[in-house]
Design brief:
about 725 residues, mainly beta, 22-stranded antiparallel beta barrel, 6 helices
Length: about 725
């Protein structure tokens, strides 16, 4: 690990097309994620990538997870088709932060394992997404260690003429999983009042993988209930991943009221609900005898709703130029249902239900103190209430009995914080940025000793954390920026860390550990971006992150025992513990060449490296969420009516020796090398997409992904990627 690896990655350069023209300079773009207010990118001393609506429409992503993957800087892992867990700079899940319209989605039960919460967002209702890399804890608080994904959804548009109506409809079909998606959104505006609403319905059938690649990924058989028995059925097409399909509803409504010039009041409602989502990686798991471990394993309907009330004041006062107050209520529900294949427990379905009710209040202020100095400050209050229930149901008789819950029912997680950030323009070429934040976190979990004789009945945590960042942005020319940044971040233990009881894998069980303390991260980053010539643009960043007191899963004693009975199986005891130190290093570079006013070529590559050290044993491991080499090369054409891109996506090989220990434990998800050990083979896909404007109101989109029908599985994923996939979409607007 001694040398710093270079990581080349596509940036928002790929998304700078607006209509038929390019913005005058990449550095003239405006971003909001750096400090929650609009800011010129040339003054930001951190790396930010943007995926805008133009690219979203051309690429036609099925889910918000697929949308994030369009940046080619965020690696997406999937355990099932109804999933998508972003990995940023070696961190993922509860170490990266999801934000929608200024409200954090991460809640008290975001886990260290792969999460699928991002699919609650509707990719068709997102107008732009910004990804800020590195610790964002100063502005966003706990969990923002690897980065922040800031989603901006459709907004109501006022009318300048008195009254206006606009909208669009989308119908899309994709062959790999027989996707059927319908979407409609409409905007109604007057000079003082505006409304925007959208509805999306998607149905995904079982996903077909490619026909050329490792046979280890195929599904030669599957489990099925026939009468009173579970049986194994031969799969007539092993490339079809049986029991992977699901469907989803999304709805959104926003109302904007402008009572007077300095005031905006916006109310927003978001709603998402999936069907049952089969957990494919558990359904293909077999024991040493080659028998399926599970007859059923699925997530129940995942529901998410959010009410948001936003008040913005844009007139200058002695304390502010702009003030935004955001209050939000989120209600998130999920459940897990699993049943053993065969054996004495074949009729017993274990069901665990979780619900999180999250309240938040944010106050964000910006003040132009002088011509050269701007101040950003604010505060945040967050409260999460967790309910967790469980039962075991006999699927033959319908009888139910109690069983241990996943989390302590009635748990509470709260945080309160204040922050301040200052930007000072030292000269016309140089800007300094400095920030600080204090966050206090409180957690309480009551433990039920009915099923496990815990040596404690409650867990409490009350901790404060101070974070800061300092950076400089230097513009030697109008079209070039050089920047440097030092920042710190933290992640406070949540209810999932402190109180969860679950089977991490067959034969092991994770028990609560109320003694956890926060993780702390320190990052250094240097980079440059801009135009080297009138045709050639580059974007480069190198970074190093150190995570201390890292919370990881390791062997543990429960009441002096290293194994206990869990759901009828003797299981090794594990617990989350602050015992590791994680290092992640890398660099990012992309290049774009303007062949002509209509044709451009771009290329990118990502390489990361890192190590995870256990201070107890001094052993060094590969961190789980270090993404392998991945990138993209694109040729694009922009005409008056036709847009087209041809691109190649690729991922490098991960040898068995470089697999994280957690991934080796999930060997059934990987192909086997010549020694029979799991590894992740390299893969490349060739793709082409186009969009043609038939008339002023109708656009036809056509695409072919994975043209050569490659069979592959992205690193750490439990389901293979789509094989050859034909996409057809029709858009109409008014």
């Amino acid at each position: 690990m001694g040398a710093l690896w270079l990581c080349f990655s596509l940036t928002s350069m790929a998304q700078r097309t607006e209509g038929d023209t390019l913005t005058t300079s990449y550095l003239d773009e405006v971003v909001v994620s750096a400090n929650k207010w609009e800011q010129n990118l040339r003054e930001v001393s951190a790396r930010i990538a943007t995926v805008n609506s133009s690219l979203i429409r051309l690429q036609n992503p099925q889910t918000a997870a697929d949308l994030l993957g369009l940046s080619n800087q965020v690696f997406i892992q999937k355990s099932q088709l109804g999933g998508g867990s972003p990995m940023i700079r070696g961190f993922a899940t509860n170490r990266v932060l999801l934000v929608v319209d200024g409200v954090r989605m991460n809640n008290a039960i975001f886990r260290g394992g792969n999460v699928q919460n991002v699919i609650s967002l509707d990719a068709n209702a997102i107008r732009e997404t910004e990804v800020i890399f590195g610790p964002g804890s100063v502005i966003y608080g706990s969990d923002a260690i690897g980065g922040v994904m800031d989603f901006h959804t459709l907004r109501p548009e006022l009318s300048t003429t008195g009254f206006s109506v606009s909208g669009q409809a989308l119908a899309r079909y994709a062959t790999a999983n027989q996707e059927n998606t319908g979407h409609v959104d409409v905007n109604i505006g007057t000079q003082k009042l505006a409304f925007v609403g959208s509805v999306t319905r998607s149905v995904f059938n079982d996903l077909r993988m490619g026909s050329r690649g490792p046979t280890d990924y195929q599904r030669p058989d599957f489990q099925q209930r026939q009468g009173p028995d579970d049986v194994v059925v031969a799969n007539p097409d092993p490339n079809v991943q049986v029991n992977s399909g699901y469907d989803q509803w999304n709805g959104m409504a926003k109302v904007l009221v402008k009572p007077s010039e300095p005031f905006d009041i916006t109310y927003a409602f978001h709603y998402s609900k999936t069907s049952d989502v089969p957990r494919y990686d558990r359904l293909i798991l077999k024991n040493a005898s080659g028998v399926f471990a599970n007859a059923e394993w699925y997530y129940g309907p995942q529901t998410w709703l959010m009410h948001t009330l936003n008040l913005t004041h844009t007139a200058a006062t002695p304390f502010s130029n702009n003030i935004r107050v955001t209050a939000a209520l989120q209600d998130y529900g999920e459940s897990r249902h699993n049943r053993n294949f065969g054996g004495a427990n074949r009729n017993r379905l274990t069901e665990r239900f979780e619900n999180v009710r999250a309240l938040s209040l944010n106050v964000d202020v910006d003040k132009q103190v002088t011509d050269r100095t701007a101040l950003f400050y604010g505060g945040e209050w967050v409260s999460n209430d967790v309910s967790s229930t469980a039962q075991r149901k006999d699927i033959v008789t319908g009888a139910t009995s109690p069983v241990s819950t996943r989390y302590p029912n009635g748990s509470d997680w709260r945080s309160v914080a204040v922050y301040a950030s200052v930007r000072h323009r030292v000269s016309e070429q140089t800007s300094l940025n400095a920030s600080a934040r204090y966050t206090h976190v409180y957690l309480f979990s009551p433990f039920d000793t009915t099923f496990f004789p815990f040596p404690f009945t409650t867990a409490q945590l009350s901790r404060g954390a101070v974070n800061g960042s300092m950076g400089v942005a230097f513009n030697p020319t109008e079209d070039l920026k050089i920047y440097f940044n030092l920042s710190s971040g933290f992640r406070a233990p949540n209810v999932d860390d402190v109180g969860r009881v679950f089977d991490s894998q067959p034969g092991s069980v994770v028990v609560p550990n109320p003694g956890l303390t926060p993780e702390t991260a320190y990052t250094a980053e240097v980079g440059f971006t801009g135009q080297l010539t009138s045709r050639l643009s580059v974007d480069f960043a190198a970074y190093y992150t150190l995570l201390n007191n890292a919370i990881v899963r390791s062997a543990f004693l429960f009441n002096g025992q290293d194994s206990i009975d869990y759901d009828g199986q003797l299981s090794q005891v594990l617990a989350l513990q602050n015992i590791n130190r994680v290092k992640v290093m890398g660099a990012q570079l992309s290049a774009r060449y303007e062949v002509s006013s209509r044709v451009r070529v771009e290329s990118s590559l990502n390489i990361q490296d890192g190590e995870e050290r256990d201070p107890l044993t001094n052993n060094v491991y590969q961190p789980t969420h270090i993404a392998p080499t991945f990138g993209s090369t694109t040729v694009s054409y922009q005409g008056k009516k036709l847009r087209a891109i041809a691109y190649v996506n690729y991922q490098g090989h991960v040898r068995f020796e470089d697999l994280a220990l957690t991934e080796r434990a999930d060997a059934h998800l990987y192909a086997k090398d010549s020694n029979g050990n799991p590894h992740a083979p390299a893969w490349t896909t060739w793709n082409v997409k186009g969009s043609y404007t038939v008339g002023p109101h109708v656009t036809v989109d056509v695409g072919v992904e994975n043209i050569f029908d490659k069979r592959y599985r992205p690193y750490a994923s439990g389901i293979s990627a789509p094989g050859r996939n034909l996409i057809f979409a029709l858009r109409a607007k008014i």
